[in-house]
Protein backbone atom coordinates (compact mmCIF):
# COMPACT_ATOMS: atom_id res chain seq x y z
CA UNK A 1 0.00 0.00 0.00
CA UNK A 2 1.08 3.57 -0.65
CA UNK A 3 2.03 5.43 2.52
CA UNK A 4 -0.76 7.70 3.79
CA UNK A 5 0.06 11.35 4.51
CA UNK A 6 -2.01 13.43 6.91
CA UNK A 7 -3.17 17.05 6.68
CA UNK A 8 -5.87 19.22 8.26
CA UNK A 9 -7.67 20.01 5.01
CA UNK A 10 -7.03 20.13 1.26
CA UNK A 11 -5.28 23.53 1.38
CA UNK A 12 -2.95 22.23 4.06
CA UNK A 13 -2.44 19.00 2.10
CA UNK A 14 -1.40 20.98 -0.98
CA UNK A 15 1.25 22.83 0.99
CA UNK A 16 2.47 19.59 2.55
CA UNK A 17 2.84 18.05 -0.91
CA UNK A 18 4.59 21.12 -2.33
CA UNK A 19 6.99 21.11 0.63
CA UNK A 20 7.70 17.41 0.18
CA UNK A 21 8.70 18.00 -3.45
CA UNK A 22 5.85 15.81 -4.69
CA UNK A 23 4.38 18.30 -7.18
CA UNK A 24 5.58 19.84 -10.43
CA UNK A 25 5.30 23.28 -8.83
CA UNK A 26 1.68 23.80 -9.85
CA UNK A 27 -1.33 23.01 -7.63
CA UNK A 28 -2.47 19.39 -7.77
CA UNK A 29 -5.71 17.60 -7.03
CA UNK A 30 -5.21 16.05 -3.60
CA UNK A 31 -5.02 12.26 -3.98
CA UNK A 32 -7.36 11.34 -1.14
CA UNK A 33 -7.85 7.62 -0.45
CA UNK A 34 -11.34 7.84 -1.93
CA UNK A 35 -10.20 9.47 -5.18
CA UNK A 36 -7.33 7.04 -5.59
CA UNK A 37 -9.55 4.04 -4.82
CA UNK A 38 -12.11 5.15 -7.42
CA UNK A 39 -9.38 5.59 -9.99
CA UNK A 40 -7.89 2.16 -9.24
CA UNK A 41 -11.35 0.62 -9.48
CA UNK A 42 -11.93 2.31 -12.84
CA UNK A 43 -8.64 0.89 -14.10
CA UNK A 44 -10.09 -2.61 -13.76
CA UNK A 45 -6.76 -3.78 -12.35
CA UNK A 46 -5.44 -4.62 -8.90
CA UNK A 47 -3.95 -1.75 -6.91
CA UNK A 48 -0.76 -3.68 -6.23
CA UNK A 49 -0.20 -4.81 -9.81
CA UNK A 50 3.36 -3.86 -10.71
CA UNK A 51 4.16 -2.23 -14.02
CA UNK A 52 7.91 -2.11 -13.39
CA UNK A 53 10.73 -0.32 -11.61
CA UNK A 54 11.21 3.35 -12.34
CA UNK A 55 14.68 4.87 -12.29
CA UNK A 56 16.76 6.49 -11.14
CA UNK A 57 15.27 6.05 -7.63
CA UNK A 58 14.06 2.52 -8.35
CA UNK A 59 10.50 3.00 -7.13
CA UNK A 60 8.00 0.30 -8.07
CA UNK A 61 5.25 1.64 -10.33
CA UNK A 62 2.07 -0.03 -9.15
CA UNK A 63 -1.39 0.70 -10.50
CA UNK A 64 -2.16 2.47 -7.21
CA UNK A 65 0.87 4.75 -7.46
CA UNK A 66 0.08 5.58 -11.07
CA UNK A 67 -3.50 6.30 -9.97
CA UNK A 68 -2.15 8.70 -7.33
CA UNK A 69 -0.26 10.58 -10.06
CA UNK A 70 -3.30 10.56 -12.35
CA UNK A 71 -5.50 12.04 -9.63
CA UNK A 72 -2.88 14.68 -8.82
CA UNK A 73 -2.59 15.60 -12.52
CA UNK A 74 -6.34 16.14 -12.84
CA UNK A 75 -7.03 13.11 -15.03
CA UNK A 76 -10.51 11.82 -15.70
CA UNK A 77 -10.90 8.07 -15.38
CA UNK A 78 -11.17 7.77 -19.18
CA UNK A 79 -7.63 9.17 -19.48
CA UNK A 80 -6.25 6.36 -17.32
CA UNK A 81 -5.64 3.71 -20.03
CA UNK A 82 -3.37 6.13 -21.88
CA UNK A 83 -1.54 7.11 -18.69
CA UNK A 84 -0.91 3.47 -17.78
CA UNK A 85 0.27 2.67 -21.31
CA UNK A 86 2.59 5.68 -21.26
CA UNK A 87 4.10 4.46 -17.97
CA UNK A 88 4.51 0.97 -19.43
CA UNK A 89 6.16 2.49 -22.49
CA UNK A 90 8.82 4.44 -20.59
CA UNK A 91 9.49 1.35 -18.47
CA UNK A 92 10.54 -0.63 -21.54
CA UNK A 93 14.31 -1.27 -21.44
CA UNK A 94 14.83 0.46 -24.77
CA UNK A 95 13.61 3.76 -23.34
CA UNK A 96 16.52 4.01 -20.84
CA UNK A 97 14.37 5.96 -18.38
CA UNK A 98 16.91 6.13 -15.53
CA UNK A 99 19.56 7.57 -17.82
CA UNK A 100 17.10 9.84 -19.55
CA UNK A 101 15.89 11.24 -16.21
CA UNK A 102 19.47 11.88 -15.06
CA UNK A 103 20.99 13.56 -18.10
CA UNK A 104 22.01 17.21 -18.36
CA UNK A 105 20.10 17.37 -21.68
CA UNK A 106 16.63 18.92 -21.62
CA UNK A 107 14.83 15.79 -22.91
CA UNK A 108 11.20 15.14 -21.93
CA UNK A 109 8.91 12.23 -22.87
CA UNK A 110 6.69 13.20 -25.80
CA UNK A 111 3.55 11.03 -25.84
CA UNK A 112 1.97 10.52 -29.27
CA UNK A 113 -1.41 8.78 -29.30
CA UNK A 114 -2.86 6.89 -32.28
CA UNK A 115 -6.00 4.87 -32.83
CA UNK A 116 -9.61 5.05 -31.63
CA UNK A 117 -8.60 5.74 -28.02
CA UNK A 118 -7.68 9.29 -29.11
CA UNK A 119 -11.41 9.95 -28.88
CA UNK A 120 -12.65 7.52 -26.21
CA UNK A 121 -9.80 8.31 -23.79
CA UNK A 122 -9.97 12.05 -24.29
CA UNK A 123 -10.59 13.51 -26.69
CA UNK A 124 -6.85 13.98 -27.04
CA UNK A 125 -6.30 17.05 -29.18
CA UNK A 126 -4.48 16.83 -32.51
CA UNK A 127 -5.44 20.13 -34.13
CA UNK A 128 -4.80 23.80 -33.40
CA UNK A 129 -2.57 24.28 -30.37
CA UNK A 130 -2.50 20.58 -29.52
CA UNK A 131 0.75 21.04 -27.60
CA UNK A 132 -0.46 24.24 -25.94
CA UNK A 133 -2.84 25.01 -23.09
CA UNK A 134 -6.57 24.35 -23.05
CA UNK A 135 -6.75 20.64 -23.87
CA UNK A 136 -7.57 18.78 -20.68
CA UNK A 137 -6.65 15.26 -21.77
CA UNK A 138 -3.35 16.31 -23.35
CA UNK A 139 -2.46 18.39 -20.30
CA UNK A 140 -3.49 15.82 -17.70
CA UNK A 141 -2.08 12.67 -19.34
CA UNK A 142 1.37 14.16 -19.92
CA UNK A 143 1.38 15.66 -16.45
CA UNK A 144 0.45 12.33 -14.86
CA UNK A 145 3.47 10.68 -16.49
CA UNK A 146 5.71 13.49 -15.23
CA UNK A 147 4.36 13.13 -11.68
CA UNK A 148 5.12 9.39 -11.85
CA UNK A 149 8.65 10.24 -12.97
CA UNK A 150 9.00 12.62 -10.01
CA UNK A 151 7.39 10.56 -7.26
CA UNK A 152 8.09 6.98 -8.35
CA UNK A 153 11.22 7.57 -10.44
CA UNK A 154 12.66 10.12 -8.03
CA UNK A 155 13.46 12.89 -10.50
CA UNK A 156 14.41 16.03 -8.56
CA UNK A 157 15.95 19.01 -10.33
CA UNK A 158 19.64 19.45 -9.58
CA UNK A 159 19.76 16.32 -7.45
CA UNK A 160 18.78 13.40 -9.65
CA UNK A 161 17.34 15.17 -12.71
CA UNK A 162 20.40 17.04 -13.93
CA UNK A 163 18.78 18.82 -16.92
CA UNK A 164 20.68 22.10 -17.08
CA UNK A 165 17.57 24.10 -17.90
CA UNK A 166 14.84 21.66 -18.96
CA UNK A 167 11.96 22.78 -21.18
CA UNK A 168 8.23 23.40 -20.70
CA UNK A 169 7.41 19.95 -22.13
CA UNK A 170 8.68 18.57 -18.84
CA UNK A 171 5.36 19.66 -17.32
CA UNK A 172 3.30 17.87 -19.96
CA UNK A 173 4.01 16.81 -23.56
CA UNK A 174 1.19 14.85 -25.18
CA UNK A 175 -0.76 15.00 -28.43
CA UNK A 176 -2.63 12.76 -30.84
CA UNK A 177 -2.11 12.35 -34.57
CA UNK A 178 -4.77 13.96 -36.76
CA UNK A 179 -5.51 10.68 -38.51
CA UNK A 180 -8.83 11.87 -39.96
CA UNK A 181 -7.21 14.59 -42.09
CA UNK A 182 -3.77 13.14 -42.70
CA UNK A 183 -2.94 12.04 -46.28
CA UNK A 184 -0.71 9.33 -44.82
CA UNK A 185 -1.44 6.05 -43.04
CA UNK A 186 -1.79 6.47 -39.26
CA UNK A 187 1.65 6.41 -37.67
CA UNK A 188 0.94 3.35 -35.52
CA UNK A 189 -0.05 1.37 -38.62
CA UNK A 190 3.34 2.08 -40.19
CA UNK A 191 4.90 0.99 -36.89
CA UNK A 192 3.28 -2.43 -37.31
CA UNK A 193 0.06 -2.10 -35.32
CA UNK A 194 -3.46 -2.75 -36.49
CA UNK A 195 -5.35 0.40 -37.43
CA UNK A 196 -8.03 -0.43 -34.84
CA UNK A 197 -5.57 -0.64 -31.98
CA UNK A 198 -4.86 2.32 -29.73
CA UNK A 199 -1.15 2.90 -29.29
CA UNK A 200 1.05 5.36 -27.44
CA UNK A 201 4.48 6.07 -28.87
CA UNK A 202 6.88 7.83 -26.51
CA UNK A 203 10.21 9.43 -27.29
CA UNK A 204 12.47 11.58 -25.14
CA UNK A 205 12.50 14.83 -27.11
CA UNK A 206 13.56 18.45 -27.06
CA UNK A 207 10.95 21.19 -27.11
CA UNK A 208 9.28 21.63 -30.51
CA UNK A 209 11.25 23.80 -32.96
CA UNK A 210 9.19 25.68 -35.51
CA UNK A 211 9.99 25.19 -39.21
CA UNK A 212 8.56 27.86 -41.50
CA UNK A 213 7.84 27.08 -45.13
CA UNK A 214 5.52 28.91 -47.49
CA UNK A 215 4.42 26.52 -50.20
CA UNK A 216 4.36 27.45 -53.88
CA UNK A 217 2.31 25.16 -56.12
CA UNK A 218 3.98 26.69 -59.21
CA UNK A 219 7.43 25.66 -58.02
CA UNK A 220 8.43 22.17 -59.21
CA UNK A 221 10.91 22.06 -56.32
CA UNK A 222 8.19 22.80 -53.73
CA UNK A 223 8.31 19.46 -51.89
CA UNK A 224 12.10 19.26 -52.16
CA UNK A 225 12.53 22.68 -50.54
CA UNK A 226 10.14 21.76 -47.72
CA UNK A 227 12.10 18.55 -47.09
CA UNK A 228 15.34 20.52 -47.02
CA UNK A 229 14.16 22.99 -44.37
CA UNK A 230 12.70 20.16 -42.28
CA UNK A 231 16.09 18.42 -42.43
CA UNK A 232 17.87 21.62 -41.35
CA UNK A 233 15.58 21.93 -38.32
CA UNK A 234 15.82 18.26 -37.49
CA UNK A 235 19.58 17.95 -37.38
CA UNK A 236 21.42 21.25 -37.60
CA UNK A 237 24.87 21.59 -36.07
CA UNK A 238 23.39 22.80 -32.78
CA UNK A 239 21.53 19.52 -32.21
CA UNK A 240 22.64 16.30 -30.56
CA UNK A 241 21.31 14.53 -33.67
CA UNK A 242 24.05 16.13 -35.79
CA UNK A 243 26.78 15.88 -33.15
CA UNK A 244 26.17 12.67 -31.19
CA UNK A 245 24.21 11.09 -34.09
CA UNK A 246 22.32 7.79 -34.11
CA UNK A 247 19.28 8.84 -32.08
CA UNK A 248 15.62 9.38 -32.91
CA UNK A 249 13.69 12.55 -33.70
CA UNK A 250 10.16 13.71 -34.51
CA UNK A 251 8.61 15.63 -37.40
CA UNK A 252 5.09 16.99 -36.90
CA UNK A 253 3.77 18.17 -40.25
CA UNK A 254 0.92 20.66 -40.33
CA UNK A 255 -1.84 19.77 -42.84
CA UNK A 256 -0.61 22.26 -45.46
CA UNK A 257 2.91 20.85 -45.44
CA UNK A 258 1.60 17.27 -45.37
CA UNK A 259 -0.42 18.02 -48.51
CA UNK A 260 2.63 19.45 -50.34
CA UNK A 261 4.51 16.22 -49.74
CA UNK A 262 1.56 13.94 -50.47
CA UNK A 263 0.81 15.82 -53.71
CA UNK A 264 4.41 15.16 -54.75
CA UNK A 265 3.66 11.45 -54.48
CA UNK A 266 5.54 10.92 -51.24
CA UNK A 267 4.29 8.61 -48.52
CA UNK A 268 5.73 8.35 -44.99
CA UNK A 269 8.47 5.91 -45.98
CA UNK A 270 9.57 8.08 -48.91
CA UNK A 271 9.63 11.22 -46.77
CA UNK A 272 11.71 9.52 -44.08
CA UNK A 273 14.11 8.21 -46.70
CA UNK A 274 14.61 11.74 -48.07
CA UNK A 275 15.12 13.20 -44.58
CA UNK A 276 17.63 10.42 -43.89
CA UNK A 277 19.55 11.37 -47.05
CA UNK A 278 19.33 15.11 -46.47
CA UNK A 279 20.89 14.80 -43.01
CA UNK A 280 24.18 13.49 -44.39
CA UNK A 281 26.92 16.05 -43.77
CA UNK A 282 30.65 16.50 -44.42
CA UNK A 283 32.61 15.14 -41.45
CA UNK A 284 34.86 18.19 -41.75
CA UNK A 285 31.90 20.38 -40.84
CA UNK A 286 31.31 18.42 -37.63
CA UNK A 287 35.04 18.62 -36.91
CA UNK A 288 34.88 22.42 -36.97
CA UNK A 289 32.32 22.47 -34.16
CA UNK A 290 33.07 19.27 -32.28
CA UNK A 291 36.46 17.78 -33.06
CA UNK A 292 36.18 15.10 -30.40
CA UNK A 293 32.91 13.76 -31.77
CA UNK A 294 34.16 13.99 -35.36
CA UNK A 295 37.32 12.01 -34.59
CA UNK A 296 35.39 8.74 -34.33
CA UNK A 297 34.13 9.10 -37.93
CA UNK A 298 36.57 7.89 -40.59
CA UNK A 299 34.55 8.66 -43.73
CA UNK A 300 34.35 12.04 -45.45
CA UNK A 301 30.63 12.27 -44.80
CA UNK A 302 28.39 10.95 -42.04
CA UNK A 303 24.68 10.43 -41.48
CA UNK A 304 22.85 11.86 -38.47
CA UNK A 305 20.43 8.91 -38.37
CA UNK A 306 21.21 5.22 -38.51
CA UNK A 307 18.11 4.44 -40.56
CA UNK A 308 15.11 6.37 -41.91
CA UNK A 309 12.70 4.65 -39.50
CA UNK A 310 14.44 6.26 -36.52
CA UNK A 311 12.53 9.44 -37.38
CA UNK A 312 8.88 9.61 -36.30
CA UNK A 313 6.57 11.45 -38.71
CA UNK A 314 3.00 12.44 -37.96
CA UNK A 315 0.49 15.11 -38.93
CA UNK A 316 -1.01 17.38 -36.29
CA UNK A 317 -1.80 21.03 -35.66
CA UNK A 318 -3.65 23.70 -37.58
CA UNK A 319 -3.03 24.46 -41.24
CA UNK A 320 -0.49 27.14 -42.11
CA UNK A 321 3.20 27.89 -42.58
CA UNK A 322 4.61 26.08 -39.57
CA UNK A 323 5.53 22.48 -38.95
CA UNK A 324 7.45 21.35 -35.89
CA UNK A 325 10.53 19.21 -35.40
CA UNK A 326 11.80 17.73 -32.16
CA UNK A 327 15.46 16.71 -32.11
CA UNK A 328 16.52 14.41 -29.30
CA UNK A 329 19.23 13.56 -26.78
CA UNK A 330 20.67 10.63 -28.80
CA UNK A 331 22.42 9.10 -25.79
CA UNK A 332 21.72 6.33 -23.27
CA UNK A 333 22.34 2.65 -23.87
CA UNK A 334 19.79 2.55 -26.70
CA UNK A 335 20.55 6.04 -28.03
CA UNK A 336 17.18 7.61 -27.39
CA UNK A 337 14.93 5.09 -29.14
CA UNK A 338 11.20 5.67 -29.30
CA UNK A 339 9.00 2.96 -27.83
CA UNK A 340 5.38 2.04 -28.53
CA UNK A 341 2.84 0.45 -26.23
CA UNK A 342 -0.62 -0.86 -27.00
CA UNK A 343 -3.32 0.81 -24.84
CA UNK A 344 -5.56 -1.75 -23.14
CA UNK A 345 -9.10 -0.41 -23.44
CA UNK A 346 -11.05 -3.50 -22.40
CA UNK A 347 -9.98 -3.58 -18.74
CA UNK A 348 -11.72 -0.40 -17.72
CA UNK A 349 -15.09 -0.06 -16.08
CA UNK A 350 -17.42 2.86 -15.54
CA UNK A 351 -18.00 3.95 -11.98
CA UNK A 352 -21.56 5.20 -11.34
CA UNK A 353 -21.40 8.92 -10.67
CA UNK A 354 -17.90 9.34 -12.14
CA UNK A 355 -18.44 8.91 -15.88
CA UNK A 356 -20.80 10.49 -18.36
CA UNK A 357 -23.30 7.62 -18.11
CA UNK B 1 28.86 6.79 -10.05
CA UNK B 2 26.89 4.04 -11.77
CA UNK B 3 30.09 2.70 -13.37
CA UNK B 4 31.86 2.73 -9.99
CA UNK B 5 29.01 0.83 -8.36
CA UNK B 6 28.80 -1.70 -11.18
CA UNK B 7 32.52 -2.51 -10.97
CA UNK B 8 32.37 -2.61 -7.15
CA UNK B 9 29.50 -5.09 -7.37
CA UNK B 10 31.80 -7.32 -9.45
CA UNK B 11 34.22 -7.34 -6.53
CA UNK B 12 36.77 -5.05 -8.19
CA UNK B 13 38.39 -2.19 -6.28
CA UNK B 14 36.52 0.90 -7.42
CA UNK B 15 36.49 4.64 -6.89
CA UNK B 16 33.80 6.76 -8.52
CA UNK B 17 34.98 10.12 -9.86
CA UNK B 18 32.25 12.74 -9.51
CA UNK B 19 32.49 16.46 -10.27
CA UNK B 20 31.28 18.80 -7.56
CA UNK B 21 28.13 19.88 -9.44
CA UNK B 22 27.12 16.23 -9.72
CA UNK B 23 28.00 15.28 -6.14
CA UNK B 24 24.36 15.28 -4.92
CA UNK B 25 23.30 13.20 -7.93
CA UNK B 26 26.13 10.79 -7.16
CA UNK B 27 24.90 10.42 -3.60
CA UNK B 28 21.36 9.90 -4.86
CA UNK B 29 22.47 7.21 -7.31
CA UNK B 30 24.60 5.46 -4.67
CA UNK B 31 21.65 5.39 -2.27
CA UNK B 32 19.22 4.22 -4.98
CA UNK B 33 21.48 1.37 -6.03
CA UNK B 34 22.03 0.22 -2.45
CA UNK B 35 25.71 1.17 -2.12
CA UNK B 36 25.69 4.47 -0.20
CA UNK B 37 29.28 3.97 0.99
CA UNK B 38 30.83 3.33 -2.43
CA UNK B 39 34.20 5.16 -2.48
CA UNK B 40 34.16 8.41 -4.42
CA UNK B 41 36.40 11.39 -5.09
CA UNK B 42 35.12 14.89 -5.77
CA UNK B 43 36.56 16.59 -8.87
CA UNK B 44 36.21 20.27 -9.80
CA UNK B 45 33.46 21.25 -12.23
CA UNK B 46 33.55 21.70 -15.13
CA UNK B 47 36.23 19.41 -16.50
CA UNK B 48 35.08 18.85 -20.08
CA UNK B 49 36.62 21.34 -22.47
CA UNK B 50 38.93 22.96 -19.91
CA UNK B 51 42.10 22.07 -21.83
CA UNK B 52 44.87 19.49 -21.56
CA UNK B 53 46.98 21.59 -19.18
CA UNK B 54 44.15 22.00 -16.70
CA UNK B 55 43.18 18.34 -16.92
CA UNK B 56 46.78 17.30 -16.19
CA UNK B 57 46.86 19.62 -13.17
CA UNK B 58 43.58 18.18 -11.86
CA UNK B 59 44.84 14.63 -12.42
CA UNK B 60 48.07 15.39 -10.53
CA UNK B 61 46.09 16.63 -7.55
CA UNK B 62 43.52 13.87 -7.62
CA UNK B 63 45.59 10.75 -8.22
CA UNK B 64 46.88 10.58 -4.61
CA UNK B 65 43.29 10.91 -3.34
CA UNK B 66 42.12 8.11 -5.65
CA UNK B 67 45.00 5.88 -4.54
CA UNK B 68 44.18 6.67 -0.91
CA UNK B 69 40.56 5.60 -1.48
CA UNK B 70 41.70 2.38 -3.16
CA UNK B 71 43.83 1.52 -0.14
CA UNK B 72 40.80 1.68 2.15
CA UNK B 73 38.87 -1.50 2.84
Labels describing this entry:
heterodimer, A: 357 residues, alpha+beta, 2 domains, four-stranded mixed β-sheet, 14 helices, 12 strands, 34% helix, B: 73 residues, mainly alpha, 3 helices, 2 strands, 52% helix, globular
Provide a compact summary of the structure:
The complex is a heterodimer of chains A (357) and B (73). Helix content of chain A is 34%, strand content 15%.
Task: Give an overview in words.
The complex is a heterodimer of chains A (357) and B (73). Helix content of chain A is 34%, strand content 15%. Chain A has 357 residues and is an alpha+beta fold. Chain A has 2 domains: 7-206 and 338-346, no CATH class; 208-327, no CATH class. Chain A has a 4-stranded mixed beta sheet. A 4-stranded mixed beta sheet of chain A has the order 6-11-7-10. In chain A, a hairpin with a 4-residue loop joins strand 1 and strand 2. In chain A, helix 3 (63-73) crosses helix 4 and helix 9 crosses helix 12. The two termini of chain B are 18 Å apart. Chain B has one domain. In chain B, strand 1, helix 2 and strand 2 form a beta-alpha-beta unit. Chain B has 3 helices and 2 strands. With 73 residues, chain B is mainly α. Classes of the chains: A alpha+beta (357), B mainly alpha (73). Chain A binds chain B through residues 55-58, 102, 154, 156, 158-160, 162, and chain B through 22, 24-25, 28-29, 32-33.
